[in-house]
Structures are given as structure tokens and as C-alpha cells.
Write a structure and sequence with these properties.
Length: about 290
């Protein structure tokens, strides 16, 4: 609809068609320069750099090194197209809870995202930005939540919580888990929770199981009324925002003219040196990156 005569190829990390399949199809169709969008909005190893390593692996696996060039759009955690659907969801969720008779001081808003190892979180984002504990990953989520609350002018209490932890139990991951956070709410006088899947773009299994099943069961056990707000999914603002990200890269839009909702953005087109290092794996090469 925007008049962009660009073909679209779809590749997955963990399911068919894989990234290498999409890359091979694009090359076979005669394309040599590609623009990649990873449907992950925040900075961390698993949500950004690993996708760039996946692209590099695909180039190597297909034997197309030197034959194709892949660029990746910037992290879009604070792009209006990503933030707006969440803000609308929070507004509608609060309206629904108010209609059920809950006052603001009886409601806690839980902005939930995927937990990651503390070591990965601390190393997320460029080291020179000095984000401290939790790195850019926590800072970005917190900034988006603050933006949403400021936009709505709500007086409800809120906190950033985590879900979907995996890995060995002796490795520290970001906390609190959403279920543990909810367990503390009745003692504070909370009677309802609004769960916002801030770290996710669609209703995949970690949303449907960890939030719609486990978290809802926890809320029921605690006597809390719970509502889960939508993910961006196919919200028009989100879809439009993805096209905006392509257009700004195609046109070389100056950073000052790129939309962003927090003081942290707009984020970089190309990762900074040492960005989002994975301590366990070591610093792997990644396509279109800058060597540490």
C-alpha cells in the first residue's frame, strides 16, 4: 500500500522455513542486498545480536559469503508503532478494571518480559552507555513502561517483572518472576492485576502458556482479578511502524528525524563495539557489525 516494490522473504530461527532457506531463495531470485527485520524489539544477546549471528551463519551455510549483503533495521523498542498498541491496551485494561469497581490503589500493573541471564542483561547495549545492572535490556523496558504510564497519566502502581526463565537453576536470571511478584500483592492491598506482555510482539506460546495459563492460575489462587493486555500482533500502528523502519533505512533518514518515544532512542543501525556480548559463548562474529 505504501508503494514499496520490495519482495518479502520469511525465515525463522527455530522452525521451517529457516533463515538459510529464505536467504537462498532471495539469492536465487537475483537479490544481492537484503534488509532484515527481527521481530524482537529490545537489546540483548538473544533478542538482537544472536539474530545477527544467525544471519551470518546463514550466509556461511549457503556458501554466499561475498555474494550477498544483509543489513538489519534498528531495535524498535521505543518506536511509536510498537509503544502505541501497548498504551492502548493498558488504557482499555484499566477501563475494564475500573468498570468492575476497582480503584487505582487496588490495581497493580505488571509489565512482563522474557527473563534472561543476569550476565547477558548486564552486557546488553553498548558498554560506553554505562547502563549498569540490567544493561540496556532492563533500561529499555523500564523506559517504555514509564512512557506508557506518563502518556496515560495513571496513578496505578506498576513494576517490571519477568517470565519464561529456563536454563540451569544455579545461573542467576532477571527477577522477580511474575508469579512471585503477584504473591506479594494481596499484602499491599492489591485486588487486581493488569498484565502487559511488554517484551513480546505476538501471542506465541510463552504468552499463551506463561501468562494466559500459569499467571492466570496464580492470580486465581491469590484471589486477584487479572486481565492480560494484547500484544501488538497485527495492530495497524505496529505494522505501519515496521514499514517505517524499512523506509527510514532505505532513505537514510537522519537520526534526528527518526521517531522514538524515550530518551534512549532512536537506537543504532549498526551495533556498537562490544554490544550484547554473550559471556558464555565468547564474542562471535556477526554480519554487518563492528569488531570489538
Amino acid at each position: 500500500a505504501r508503494g514499496l516494490e520490495l519482495p518479502v522473504y520469511w525465515g525463522n530461527r527455530n522452525w521451517m522455513p529457516y533463515v538459510a532457506d529464505a536467504l537462498q531463495d532471495a539469492h536465487d531470485a537475483g537479490h544481492r542486498r537484503l534488509l532484515a527485520i527481527a521481530t524482537s524489539a529490545y537489546s540483548s544477546y538473544s533478542s538482537c545480536r544472536q539474530y545477527r549471528e544467525d544471519l551470518a551463519d546463514a550466509v556461511e551455510a549457503t556458501g554466499l559469503s561475498g555474494a550477498v549483503e544483509i543489513d538489519k533495521v534498528r531495535q524498535f523498542f521505543d518506536h511509536p508503532g510498537f509503544v502505541t498498541p501497548f498504551a492502548e491496551g493498558v488504557a482499555e485494561g484499566l477501563e475494564a478494571l475500573h468498570a468492575q469497581g476497582f480503584a487505582d490503589d487496588e490495581i497493580e500493573i505488571l509489565f512482563s518480559t522474557h527473563s534472561i541471564p543476569n550476565s547477558d542483561a548486564d552486557r546488553s547495549g553498548p558498554p560506553e552507555r554505562g547502563f549498569g545492572a540490567g544493561g540496556a535490556y532492563v533500561a529499555q523496558h523500564t523506559a517504555v513502561a514509564e512512557t506508557i504510564m506518563s502518556r496515560l497519566g495513571s496513578s496505578c502502581a506498576w513494576q517490571l517483572v519477568f517470565q519464561s526463565r529456563s536454563g540451569p537453576p544455579q545461573v542467576p536470571w532477571l527477577e522477580p518472576d511474575i508469579n512471585d511478584a503477584m504473591a506479594e500483592l494481596p499484602a499491599r492491598g492489591r485486588k487486581a492485576v493488569l498484565i502487559v506482555p511488554l517484551g513480546f510482539v505476538s501471542d506465541h506460546m510463552e504468552v499463551l502458556w506463561d501468562l494466559d495459563t500459569e499467571a492466570m492460575e496464580t492470580a486465581d489462587e491469590l484471589g486477584l482479578t487479572a486481565i492480560r493486555t494484547p500484544t501488538p500482533g497485527t495492530h495497524p500502528a505496529y505494522v505501519t511502524g515496521l514499514v517505517d523502519l524499512m523506509v527510514e533505512r532505505l532513505n537514510g533518514t537522519a537520526a534526528a528525524d527518526r521517531p522514538h518515544e524515550t530518551d534512549l532512542g532512536p537506537w543504532y543501525d549498526v551495533c556498537r563495539p562490544g554490544c550484547c556480548e554473550n559471556k558464555r559463548l565468547g564474542f562471535q562474529p556477526a554480519l554487518a557489525g563492528i569488531a570489538p
